[in-house]
Specification:
The structure is a single chain. This protein has 470 residues and is mostly helical. The protein has one domain. It has 17 helices and 4 strands. The chain has a two-stranded antiparallel sheet with strand order 1-2. A two-stranded antiparallel ribbon has the order 3-4.
């Protein structure tokens, strides 16, 4: 039988089927956002889990772990697996030096302690907050988009906690303050009254930085949305009645305004003043209580209340502990054990806590409520030089890179908003550490903030310039 080829007839060419071309995802497409944010989900989970109410410790302290702490451990493990798979040097020498400095002081303090086993939880806590989680975020955050996404998740958490705090004030279901259950504490409860104030202050500083640093290269609507968030977060911050958070926020936002330009700073100050008059004077949001609380800031030296007296007494005790061991301190977790032998009789047995769903509790005073004095007493001069030196190095590098980003002729999309955010966060933390220390569920958010700062200050220039994304 003759074939088609033998008769000289060419068979028809098969018509190729149309190849399926993937449809490009637009920037606003939810699938694109989800795909882009997928590597950041472990870090976002740490932030989101801070909204979960934490069970109070049996002794009334606020130092127990939380689900957010467990999530931070998984975050570190996730980044470790990524580093092992990539088989590349994860950190630059500068980054390894700056983030690794606290390890020296913490290790020496633990080894020279009279009770080394008792200090091991302190070793884990310090490494978690100041070394491991910041290093993990330095490796995880790839560019400005990642930075803004993670920073936005903190603002979202602050808005949620702030909304709960405002409801607590309006309904009288907050923590006890001057005999009334009106203090806004969010889901952190009365044993961690600084928790909501810290989260809300972080969110406010981030929002202000995004608003002041917004440029033509920033996402559309960033400035307007950030200004709205900053205004909303002002209310729960006021209702937290936290003097330390107020002072730290005022200093941080004031510096952000100065760095953004004198004219803009003047306009912002006038706007903030008008907003304060409306909130406190016009709407009557705790006007008398807020006024009394503000007035007490200037009166703590003349007529301090018992809480201030306790703080001064513990500061003196911490300083006295340092004198006994000036180089290495009394050891991690050693302040409670040495407190009574160094404190005067003016120190009370503890602080009273109540409200927000809990009955009356006597919360023991287990730290001097001053991070610098806590490190000085437990880790000595070596701990202060290494830990505080690491923070100072981050701040110096942050300001240098912010100056380059906001130079006379800054390149389009240099991420100055990220630099303003980091500067505000670092300054807020350094000021707040004069009135508080690590402890409580909200402490893990401090590690996230230091991670954002580490990315801006220590990441290679290619990452900060947005080579991966915008």
């Amino acid at each position: 039988m003759a074939t088609a080829e033998a008769l000289g007839v060419r068979p028809p060419h098969p018509v190729p089927l149309p190849r399926r071309v993937p449809v490009p995802l637009l920037p606003g497409d939810p699938r694109a956002v989800l795909r882009r944010a997928a590597p950041l989900l472990p870090a976002v989970a740490v932030v989101a889990l801070l909204a979960v109410p934490s069970a109070p410790a049996g002794d009334g302290s606020a130092g127990s772990g939380s689900v957010a702490d467990a999530a931070s451990a998984l975050l570190v493990l996730y980044c470790l697996v990524r580093v092992l798979r990539q088989r590349a040097r994860p950190l630059t020498r500068t980054a390894a030096l700056v983030l690794g400095m606290p390890v020296l002081g913490v290790t020496v303090a633990a080894l020279t302690s009279d009770d080394t086993p008792a200090g091991l939880p302190g070793v884990a806590r310090y490494l978690q907050i100041f070394v491991l989680v910041p290093a993990a975020l330095l490796l995880l955050v790839r560019d400005r988009w990642d930075f803004r996404f993670l920073g936005g998740s903190v603002v979202a958490l602050a808005l949620a906690q702030g909304a709960i705090g405002v409801v607590q004030y309006l309904t009288g279901t907050g923590a006890s303050y001057r005999g009334e259950d009106i203090r806004a504490v969010g889901t952190f409860g009365p044993t961690d009254v600084m928790g909501m104030a810290t989260v809300v202050a972080y969110g406010l500083v981030i929002a202000v930085g995004f608003a002041l640093g917004a440029t033509d290269g920033s996402p559309r609507g960033q400035r307007a949305a950030a200004l709205v968030c900053a205004g909303l977060l002002t209310v729960p911050l006021v209702l937290s009645f936290s003097r330390g958070a107020w002072i730290a926020t005022a200093v941080a936002v004031g510096l952000q305004l100065l760095l953004s330009g004198p004219r803009r700073a003047a306009v912002a100050v006038l706007t903030a003043g008008a907003l304060g008059v409306v909130l406190v004077g016009g709407l009557g949001l705790g006007s008398q209580l807020v006024t009394d609380r503000l007035g007490s800031i200037a009166e703590v030296a003349d007529a301090p209340d018992q809480s201030v007296t306790d703080r001064y007494t513990m500061w003196a005790a911490a300083t006295d502990m340092w004198r006994t061991r000036p180089v290495t301190g009394v050891g991690l977790k050693g302040f409670p054990a040495h407190r009574d032998s160094h404190a005067s009789l003016a120190l009370s047995s503890g602080s009273d806590t109540a409200g927000a769903g809990l009955g009356f509790q006597r919360q023991p005073l287990l730290s001097p409520h001053n991070m610098y004095l806590l490190v000085l007493s437990e880790q000595g001069l070596l701990g202060v030089l290494t830990l505080v030196g690491s923070w100072a190095a981050l701040l110096v590098l942050t300001l240098r890179r912010l100056r380059a980003a906001r130079g006379p002729r800054p390149a389009r999309g240099t991420g100055a908003d990220c630099g303003l955010v980091v500067t505000g966060l670092l300054v807020w933390q350094l000021v707040d550490f004069g009135y508080a220390d690590i402890g409580g569920p909200s402490t893990v958010l401090t590690a996230v903030m230091l991670g954002l700062a580490a990315w801006w200050a220590l990441a290679p220039g290619r990452a900060r310039s947005g080579a991966v994304g915008t």
